[in-house]
Amino acid sequence: MKKSSMLGALCAAVISVISLSSQAALIGVLPATSGGTDWQAYYDDQLDISWTANANINSVGTWDTRVAWAASLMIDGIGGWRLPSMDVNGNGTIVNCASGSQAACKDNEYGHLYYYGEGTTLGNGITPASPGPFSNLDPFAAVYWSGTENAIPGRAWRFNFEDGVNTAEFKESFDFAWAVHAGNVGVVPVPGAVWLFSSGLLGLISMARRK
């Protein structure tokens, strides 16, 4: 292969890796069977987190038990799961995603999934009536614990997938829980992949100059 062709192919690969994070999609990851499409999680490239494909792996429970469950969850040997945050920036404000911008809504991971889903358009989100690729999003009592505690002691925030409302509830109440993981659990981290391709590109350029 000519050096110019090799450089072109390598540049295309770098561009492909970089562009992955700018696409709007829920990308299936961690297939249960090798080479299959029975995904166990979906990467949300708008929030840069991975959601479990099953929205109700562990049924209902109190806030403390659901937090502990998520922290102990292992999928394909991958730990580090947690409950979704409804206050990502930690400023104490729970964003109502029914109003305001998408950028503001990203502070509420449940809210963004409900109102925006895999895209950037308000109203095209994940609901019990339109669950997208997810399974077991309860259609009748779809109230989910978040990992965000309320300012009132003994309470935590939860999200209602029936109407998109944020509420604070006593931690002793029984609600559902969904697990998420930082980043894309199904691929090599993008920065590392970009570094690898870039190093190869620089190496080829160096070789070409020497010749």
Describe this structure in words.
With 211 residues, the protein is of the alpha+beta class. The chain has one domain: Mannose-Binding Protein A, Chain A (Roll), CATH 3.10.100. The protein is 28% helix and 19% strand. The protein has helices at residues 3-19, 63-72, 102-105, 109-115, 190-210; strands spanning 26-31, 39-44, 49-52, 143-149, 155-160, 165-170, 176-177, 180-182. The protein has a four-stranded antiparallel beta sheet with strand order 1-2-3-8, with no helix packed on it. A four-stranded mixed beta sheet has the order 6-5-4-7, with helices on one face. A hairpin with a 4-residue loop joins strand 2 and strand 3. Helix 1 (3-19) runs antiparallel to helix 5 (190-210). Residues 1-22 and 190-198 have low confidence and may be disordered.
